[in-house]
Write a structure and sequence with these properties.
With 288 residues, this protein is an alpha/beta fold. It has helices at residues 16-27, 40-49, 55-63, 72-78, 84-95, 100-104, 134-140, 168-173, 197-202, 207-232, 254-270, 272-286, and strands at 4-8, 34-38, 109-116, 122-126, 150-152, 155-158, 178-182, 236-239.
Length: 288
């Protein structure tokens, strides 16, 4: 499906929903030539592209309560609440080996959205050789206030979700006439304005970053409206939770996380018929 992009929202541990949808794709042998994501969306994408079913789910379920993976101790020691030594080294190289060969030989090219702290704008990096680009994975998952900035090419970056939570427009700009979008919020959700007082103190030297954080709620809601319009036009197919998710982006309740994964699989199976019809129609239209 070279004419269809795959767009993955972030959302921290809510990304276990995305893991369920991507495992459904693996079950049905559904592949894409292009994938773009922010934050947790990127983490889920790498296991999908390497065709390692259950890997993203099991990483979250097995290690979310491991202090080396996620905990206040990491924040105090390293400046980031996630333990990136474990996330980007111990897990892929020892505990749950990552299939680099399959990933690097895949026709699907992954793009990660990151937020430039100086400009407050999104930048996008291709991740064809993952071993050389773990710093980009770290950058796109570095949540403001509880993660340190990541230096890449002499520029400082944070979580891609700050400036582009659902990078659908970039996928379109990259030439994808049609897109499949995986969201981690239900259809009724709209982001509310929240205080950024701490951010103003922490990031006083980065006024454009503060502005991006201040406007994030509005930008996010505008993105949802754009997605709904594209959905009505038949330009995109959306997978989203069929019910409100009662988990946070730093959720540590394994039973809740497991339930969200199971919900994603059920939702995907329930949409299978309509999704196949959309794919068939899209393929016919794209080739006229």
């Amino acid at each position: 499906m070279n004419n269809i992009g795959l767009v993955l929202e972030g959302g921290g541990l809510r990304g276990v929903y995305t893991a369920g949808v991507l495992d459904y794709f693996l079950d049905k042998n559904i592949e894409f030539g292009y994938c773009i994501g922010a934050s947790a969306g990127v983490c889920n994408a790498v296991s999908y592209i390497s065709k390692q079913k259950y890997r993203s789910r099991d990483i979250n379920l097995n290690y979310v309560n491991d202090k080396r993976y996620l905990g206040i101790g990491n924040l105090l020691k390293t400046g980031s609440i996630f333990g990136y030594k474990m996330m980007l080294d111990t897990i892929p190289h020892q505990l749950m080996p990552f299939d680099y060969h399959t990933y690097e030989n895949s026709k699907c090219v992954l793009t990660a959205a990151v937020t430039n702290c100086e400009t407050g704008k999104s930048e996008y990096y291709r991740l064809k050789n993952l071993r050389q680009h773990y710093d980009i994975v770290q950058a796109t998952t570095s949540l403001p206030l509880i993660s340190k900035m990541v230096n890449i090419d002499n520029k400082k970056f944070l979580d891609g979700g700050v400036s582009d939570s659902i990078p659908i427009r970039q996928s379109i700009n990259d030439g994808n006439q049609y897109n499949v979008v995986v969201l981690t919020r239900d259809q009724t959700y709209r982001k509310k304005k929240s205080s950024i007082a701490l951010a103003k103190i922490r990031y006083g030297k980065y006024p454009n970053l503060i502005k991006a954080m201040e406007n994030r709620w509005n930008d996010y809601n505008n993105e949802l409206e754009f997605i709904e319009k594209l959905e009505q036009l038949g330009k995109i197919f959306v997978f989203r939770p069929s019910e409100q998710l009662s988990i946070s982006r730093l959720e540590k309740d394994v039973d809740k996380l497991s339930s969200v994964y199971d919900l994603a699989v059920r939702d995907s199976e329930n949409k299978h018929k309509s999704f196949m019809q959309w794919l068939e129609k899209t393929n016919i239209t794209a080739n006229k």
